[in-house]
Automatic annotation (TrEMBL):
Family per record: Belongs to the LysR transcriptional regulatory family.
Top-level taxon: Bacteria
InterPro entries: LysR_HTH_N, LysR_subst-bd, WH-like_DNA-bd_sf, WH_DNA-bd_sf
Keyword Transcription: yes
Record's keyword terms, sorted: DNA-binding, Transcription, Transcription regulation
Protein source organism: Chryseobacterium candidae
Lineage of source species: Bacteria, Pseudomonadati, Bacteroidota, Flavobacteriia, Flavobacteriales
Keyword Transcription regulation attached: yes
SUPFAM superfamilies for this protein: Periplasmic binding protein-like II, Winged helix' DNA-binding domain
Protein name: LysR family transcriptional regulator
Family annotation (PROSITE patterns): HTH_LYSR (PS50931)
HTH lysR-type domain span: 2-59
Length: 300
């Protein structure tokens, strides 16, 4: 008989594109992800992904299977989360959605001291907004507003998207190119450097490039790592460039381990919002979490 966890793992690999990304999303080991996938492939009798480097590309049969199982798995996960919450009588359980890097930089350090149970969910913003509206999540941290009349958004901070580099990057040489004020020369200098990217969202890089050069970047990063916090750690090795939110590397810039290379011709800023339902039974717990975010982000 097929193990339903195999399907959950299959869905995670499909959505993240890597075994590492799936392991992070499911909080299991990468060997465990590989075992689930190989077991499912043996069960269905065909290959579900083509392995290109570290990237997992779904085969045609893999796409068919995903389309068949994605919605039922989502419904089962919704039932699981709602049932867990409904059976909790004494200590409230709060479900919070945000990106992985935001969790690591802000809330992670406070989890052990929370006076209530906590479920952290990582996902894409449209998906989190939908889960908030359905009652699966109680609070989300997002740079994008939804349109549901049941959800209220509260701006609490902002992030600036900046170009950073390792301490060995020749910032003085780049400053000379900037003084020429020739967009093509600036772009060419940047493209000749080594670049870091993530296996998931590349939206920050795309936004920064379009704002400064009028088009999406026509190159691929040299090094693809699991998330933006991984990028910051890699940059401490001395070389390379990346486009990241400033709050992720503020301390590293202050310490000199990472350099602020360029803020761009115009500052690229995103407003960060708390999103929650207008009617909730967990207002006290939600306000507690909001307070922690304001403390870390310098607004409380």
């Amino acid at each position: 008989m097929v193990n339903l966890e195999w399907y959950r793992t299959f869905k995670a690999i499909y959505k993240t594109g890597t075994l590492t990304g799936a392991a992070d999303a499911l909080f299991i080991s990468q060997p465990g992800v590989s075992l689930h996938l190989s077991s499912l492939e043996a069960y269905v009798g065909y290959k579900l992904f083509d392995r290109t480097g570290r990237k997992m590309i779904p085969t045609e049969r893999g796409k068919v299977l995903f389309n068949a199982v994605a919605e039922p798995i989502n419904k089962l996960e919704d039932v699981e989360k709602n049932f867990q919450k409904s059976t909790e009588k004494h200590t409230p359980t709060i479900s919070v959605g945000m990106c992985f890097e935001t969790f690591q930089t802000t809330l992670e350090q406070y989890v052990s001291s929370l006076p209530f149970n906590l479920i952290i969910s990582f996902g894409e913003y449209p998906e989190m907004l939908d889960q908030l509206d359905k009652g699966i999540l109680d609070l989300i941290i997002t740079p994008k507003k939804g349109s549901s009349p049941n959800i209220e958004h509260e701006a609490f901070s902002s992030e600036q998207i900046i170009l950073v580099g390792g301490k060995e990057v020749d910032k003085a040489a780049f400053s000379k190119v900037l003084k020429i004020k020739d967009a093509e020369q600036i772009e060419e200098w940047l493209k000749n450097e080594k670049w870091y990217g993530t296996t998931g969202d590349m939206e920050h890089l795309f936004q920064f490039w379009v704002l400064n050069f009028g088009h999406k970047p026509n190159f691929r990063p040299n090094y693809i790592v699991p998330n933006m916090n991984s990028i910051i750690r890699c940059l401490k090795g001395g070389t390379g460039l990346a486009v990241v939110p400033d709050f992720l590397c503020r301390k590293d810039i202050e310490s000199g381990e990472v350099q602020l290379i360029w803020e761009g011709k115009k500052k690229l800023e995103n407003t960060l919002y708390f999103g929650c339902r207008k009617k909730t039974n967990y207002q006290t717990e939600i306000e507690h979490i909001k307070g922690l975010f304001r403390k870390v982000m310098g607004k409380g």
